[in-house]
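Let us walk through a complete example step by step. Step one is to write down the protein sequence. Step two is to encode the small molecule, 2-acetamido-2-deoxy-beta-D-glucopyranose, as a SMILES string so that its atoms and bonds are unambiguous. Step three, shown after the inputs, is the structure prediction itself.
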Amino acid sequence: MEVGRVFIAWSIAFLLLSVSGEEMTGLSHCDIPAIYNFGDSNSDTGGISAAFYPAGQPSGETFFHEPAGRGSDGRLIIDFIAKRLRLPYLSAYLDSIGASFRHGANFATGGSTIRQLNESFFLTGASPFSLDIQIVQFDQFKTHTGKLYNKAKKNSHRRNLPRPQDFSDALYTFDIGQNDIAAGIRKSSSENFRAVLPDIIDQLASAVKHLHEQGARNFWIHNTGPIGCLPVTQRNYHHPMPGILDEHGCLIAQNDMAIEFNRQLKRRVTKLRTQLPGAALTYVDIFAAKYKLISNPKEQGFVDARSICCGYHEDSNHVWCGHRDKINGTEIYAGSCEDPSKYISWDGVHYTEAANHWIANHILNGSFTDPPVPITHACLS
Ligand SMILES: *[C@@H]1O[C@H](CO)[C@@H](O)[C@H](O)[C@H]1NC(C)=O
Ligand SMILES: *[C@@H]1O[C@H](CO)[C@@H](O)[C@H](O)[C@H]1NC(C)=O
Ligand SMILES: *[C@@H]1O[C@H](CO)[C@@H](O)[C@H](O)[C@H]1NC(C)=O
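Step three: the predicted structure of the complex.
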């Protein structure tokens, strides 16, 4: 498998923050009954696994004790979001077996992009479920579940369906864009990427506007993380020229693409606030949170941020997490490390449960969001 494929891969203080947050923003504590999530592998809780090949061992080993359709040893940030809102972990829309959609659905799939890439999943790992398709799926989901709910004669037939009135109070979360940048890196120069970036941001904004037309009001929008700090990218630079890497070993040019994406996204979210009356839009600086962790791993109880827990990546040989391959005639099984809780990177591209937990703890209380309110207040009352 090539790199591109995987890319495509509380207390008094809390009360004080809540009060100041409300005064500043007009937002107040809200009961969020459901989450609808759109994204890529950073928040896929089983979508691409249900659609194509199931995630294999050792993914899921830390928390679920079996593969759980997630690119991690355990939970993702979206799982910690659900937990903080006292909601169950989200079922993937594409998973037809045993799923409950009472409290929302997850449309994210590993490899998803904002723009349609027109590539084959089987060749590059690009997900056919780009953001526009995820939005089409949401529309079908809303219409179809609404009909079933109204037709149901017994409450037990409604148990796994969302309550139609919950769509307007739900939180609509986004974590997508990393694979658009990865595709830009694979296919073209950074100049070409900059030329298509406004279109990418437009398409994300269109998705938000469309959901707003469908009655969505509360939006929680992650920006994109420091793609240049993914260990698997760093491994390809053995003797980098001066000025290629920053002080933490991250590729400056790739991070600059993410920073530019985030600059334009933030500006667009600000504009959307004026265009979408009655909407609460929270912009979440995932880049800053992840970069903070990557710049101080030891202080936060982790080993070097470049270490990969699961997989074999030496010289230019890559055997991806859970896979087997022959290297110099010897078969290698790329298993996981002894203590994943000490690692930031699970498989070179995705984060461990421990890192996701750290990041979630830092974003959910509002310290990396605009406006600076905790997720429990990211709504209009
Ligand atoms: C993919 O195809 C669609 C429809 O033809 C087109 O609008 C879009 O620009 C294409 N995407 C890329 C990245 O070329
Ligand atoms: C494979 O062979 C190369 C060249 O002889 C060597 O540098 C490398 O360490 C070997 N790798 C393994 C896993 O044995
Ligand atoms: C948010 O939580 C993090 C992690 O516990 C903590 O370091 C930070 O100070 C908190 N920020 C606020 C504004 O409460």
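Step four is interpretation. The CA atoms of residues 244 and 316 lie 19 Å apart.
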